[in-house]
Design brief:
- By secondary structure, this protein is α/β, with parallel strands linked by helices.
- The chain is 25% helix and 27% strand.
- It is built from 4 helices and 7 strands, in the order βββαβαβββαα.
- It is globular and about 40 Å long.
Length: 165
Amino acid sequence: MIRSGAVDVDYPDSGGGRAALVAGSLPGFAVETERVAWLDEVEAYVPGQFYRRELPAIRAVLAGVDPLELLIVDGYVDLDPGGRPGLGAHVHEALGIPVIGVAKTSFHTATHAVAVLRGGASKPLFVTAIGLPRSDAAAFVAGMCGPFRMPDALRRVDALARGRA
C-alpha cells in the first residue's frame, strides 16, 4: 500500500484560497482522512506560473500531516512530451515525492498524457506523472474507488476545496 494524498485548491471570488487534502492508500484510495486549510492572501494568477499560486496553498494543507509517499494533483505534471513543467512537476520538485496529475480536459500539447476511461464515461481523464511510470499512474487512477468518471477521492477533495462538503 502506498500512503497517498490528493490535493485541490479553490479561489473564491471574495478572495483568499481554500486548499483541501484527502489521504488514503493506493491501490484503491479509499479516503481515510481529510483536511482543509484557508489562506487569507494568495498570489495573483499569472499565465505560465500557476504553480506560484498553488504551491503555498498545497504546502499549507500538508503542514503537520504524516509524510505521504505520493501526491495526486488536479492538472498536469508536465505540459508536453519534452517535459515542460506543469503544476505537478513543481510540486514534485518542492516535495520530493512522486506526483500524479489528473486533468479533466485535454491540453493541446500534452500528447503524452495517458487517457483513462472510468465508470462508463465516454470522456477520458488525462494522466501524467513524475517519479513513477505514466502507465502505473494511469493504472492507479483507473483502479481508484468509485463508480464515476472522477474517482471518489478526487470528487471529495474538489468538494472540500470548494467549501461544498
